[in-house]
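agent> Task received from the user: take the single chain below, predict its 3D structure, and emit structure tokens. No templates, no multimer pairing.
agent> Plan: (1) validate residues, (2) run structure prediction, (3) serialize to tokens, (4) report one or two observations.
agent> Step 1 OK, no nonstandard residues flagged.
tool_call: predict_structure(input=
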Amino acid sequence: MPYIKTPQEWEIPESQVTPESDYIDRRKFIKDLGIASASALLLSSSTACAQKKGVEKQLEPFQAQKLAVENNTRFTVERPITDEVVAATYNNYYEFTSSKSTVWKRVDKFITRPWEIEISGLVEKPMTLDVDDLIKQMPIEERIYRFRCVERWAMVVPWIGFPMKALLEKVQPTAEAKYVRMLTFLDPDMAPEQHNVRMPWPYFEGLTLAEAMNDLTLLVVGIYGHVLPPQHGAPIRLIVPWKYGFKSIKSIVSIELTDQKPRTFWNTLGPREYDFEANVNPNVPHPRWSQAKEWMIGSGDIHKTVIYNGYGNSVAHLY
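)
tool_result: status=success, residues=319
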């Protein structure tokens, strides 16, 4: 009997996945889209200009909240840093919308202060901390990281934060702790897509304790020299640069240490497509597209995907 799959509303339809040949050949891609005419280019330019101005205005109050930190030169990337407006205009945040280009418009009701984070489970010193108090206690610095999405797009971002290891050492994991489970907020009044009962809200993610204690694993509170705007996961989010972006949970409210491997949001929805490990690997295709190449948001440059997103020297031993 033939296998019939009913697509879920969160899945990217096969018809929307760019063919590999077109993906590589940008001239053909542009021609096929039919945007070569002057009138179409003018309309595209006008729309882009209006969006750029809208995002710039939206960012102003966050840019005013500067974070005076040193850049850690151990963490550098050979590619140019993605333009801030571009990075703020291309975000996955399904709590607000499934449209990456409009998240910044949908977060106006998102209140990120006051904000508390509970650290619990298999720890000697469980605690609940206000995010601003936590920031004062942690070794905050800027790190420039690659950021790679499972959908094949990529950025280079100057994140501001502290190693997750510093927080875990503060609460002292017990000998039984093997995994870290994280949870984001639940408030459908602020995040309307959380009314969707087909999705297992609130968002939840997990790492092994060894992954969480790795020096690269960062709890982020700022970006581009200032506090996080809401579309980037304010007021505190995770960045795990050798994994696909969906592992880097946004707007964290709970961190729990456990001896059991935790379920994760996207693995629960699509276990064939989103595994627990989710390491960037050009040799392991997504079931619906190749992961061999990636394209840079903003510039459109195309690069070969590098295993562990280029961080293999720091993390390959974990696997």
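agent> Step 4: summary for the user.
Residues 68-318 form a domain with the Sulfite Oxidase; Chain A, domain 2 fold (CATH 3.90.420.10).
agent> Done.
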